[in-house]
Amino acid sequence: MQSMPNSGQDAGIHHNGGWVRNLRTSIVYALVALLLTVASGWHVYHLTFENMLGEIKTQAHHRLETYDNSLEREIDKYANFPYVVGLDASLWEYLADTSNARLKLRSNLYLEKLNDRVGSLALFLLDTSGTVVASSNWNKSDSFVGRDLSYRPYYKNVGIDRIERFYGIGTTNNEPGYFLSTAVHIGDQIIGTAVVKVSLEQLEKSWSSAESPAILSEGHGVVVLSSVPSWKYAALSPLDEEARRQIIISQQYNGHALLPFGMTVRRVLDESSSIVTLPPTGRNGSNLFSTDGLFLTQTRLMTGTPWHLTVFSDLKNAEDQAKIRATLAVLITAVLLGLVFIFMLRHVHLREILQAREALQRANDELERNVAERTADLSAANAKLQQEVEERSRAEQILREAQDGLVQASKLAVIGQLSAGIAHELNQPLAALSTLSGNAVKFIARGDVETASSNLERIGPLVERMGLMTGQLKSFARKSSGEPRLVVLGKSLDNALFLQEQRLLRGGVGVTIDFPKDDVQVWCDPNRLEQVLVNLIGNALDAMEQVNNPRIELSASVTDGVAKLQVRDYGPGLSQETLTHLFEPFFTTKAPGLGLGLGLPISAGIVRDFGGELTAWNAPDGGAVFALTIPIYKESERNGAPA
Ligand code: ADP
Q1: DSSP letter assigned to residue 232
Q2: Could you give the CA distance from residue 240 to residue 220 in angstroms, rounded to a whole number?
Q3: End-to-end CA distance of the chain
Q4: How far is it, in rounded angstroms, from Cα 418 to Cα 535?
Q5: N or C: which end of the chain has fewer CB within 10 A?
Q6: What is the CB neighbour count within 10 angstroms for residue 522?
Q7: Domain range holding 365?
Q8: How confident is the model at residue 612 (pLDDT cuts 50, 70, 90)?
Q9: How far is the CA of 540 from the centre of ligand 1 (A)?
């Protein structure tokens, strides 16, 4: 038999291995998924931030442009006034004679009027030494008149047909302003300086209405305009010695501390823009702007000046947006990867189920193939067996027929042996019949009817006896089927003795019968039992042919449901050789024509068929003993009419 694969165990190992592999794959997948999720979040944050930064930059650029334009416009509005002042001939006159009180008054009034019209902070005139000789605020408490402003750059650097610009805090009234100056000249000779001081406060105020701060820094990097008041006069970068010296000389900031601005650059985007964190709006600063977080700075140099205009744009919104989108991206990526993972798991699971099913199918196919092979083998073996059984039963049938034939043949042989005796037995009554019938005829002829009738009456029993004899012989000779039925043992023995009667009488053989009082009933074919008994009695008679005082003892007993019948003679007994070959076919010690050597083997076969046994031995005091056993008849077991 082919051994089946231990599919259960294999499946277990496979399952276990699969589990470990799955765990490993899951961990790797989880790490990759984590990496991808973080990367997607970072990427989206970066992308969103940069994208919004671009937009903010564009907006800031517009704002910068607007501020720049308005500043230019504001300054340009006053740019020509120094020229206008310088063109006035009466001022020339006054500059030529500054001690003239009338000219002085006229000049002061002129400047005052012009200043009122123009809307500037102040208009004033310096002589060649840098002293204020006339001013629009001549009659105010903070009048500039008489002040020496020769340290101011707008005096020092003044030129013909050129506007000098300067931002500074007034040393008289501490008021910041933008100073524009040009030389008053006659031909190439400078006779004085005309200065207009402009306020940029309005502009500054307009900036503070914007949503994020803006500053204007001058050449040294000091904040001069700022939408956050506390940032004003802070230095964007540390001032060098030279700058400090110039500022001190020009008293530009009138003693202001010029502290560092406190801005930290986080990322330089290009030469004009960077991402920074801003200083707080200061203790007295308004809460207009929150300066927490990142800001974009954009700076531009104002044309024709060393001034830088800077706008700050809050990046909080961009940061928030980027954070929201990054979070969304992380969530979406996680969900997608989760779905992919579930799909993969499902796929793996399905594949495993499919593999298991295939394995099961393979095992099943294998099993079916094995079963089919075994069935085919079995069928073939069965067919062969059946054929053999048939052959065997056919052979048995043939054997049985042969046996039956043999039994019959042996019986006929016995009959042959009996025939001489029987013929002799029949001769006597026949002779008696002949005599009696002949006498009867004679007695009738004589008229002695009485004697004749007596003779005829004696004929009846003779005919009856002859009929009995031939009937017995006929019954013995008939071929029996071997079918068992209820047989009375004594009756069978009587029949056998009757058939051998002639030989017994002729030989003067004494017969002793020792049977139980009650009938012994056995289960066998009566005809065949008689055949065995005739045989055994015949053999005994043969053996005792030369013996004086021949005797046969016939006895029967019943033990343990088995009847035992013994035939004992007083002949020479059985020699050792005879005992060895007694039941072998064709073993005979008799002269040819007297014995075939089939009687005992056939008898033994018959007794075996009954379910009994035929055995032989020598009696201790001489002679042979033949014993046969036959199962006794039991009513509960069998049904049969007595023979
Ligand atoms: P057959 O009588 O034809 O020889 P049997 O099979 O009946 O064949 O007997 C075989 C032989 O057994 C006989 O030839 C005889 O030698 C021996 N035998 C049988 N019965 C007796 C007996 N009662 N006493 C001595 N020998 C016997």
Answers
A1: T
A2: 9
A3: 57
A4: 11
A5: N
A6: 28
A7: 1-76+317-371
A8: very high
A9: 8
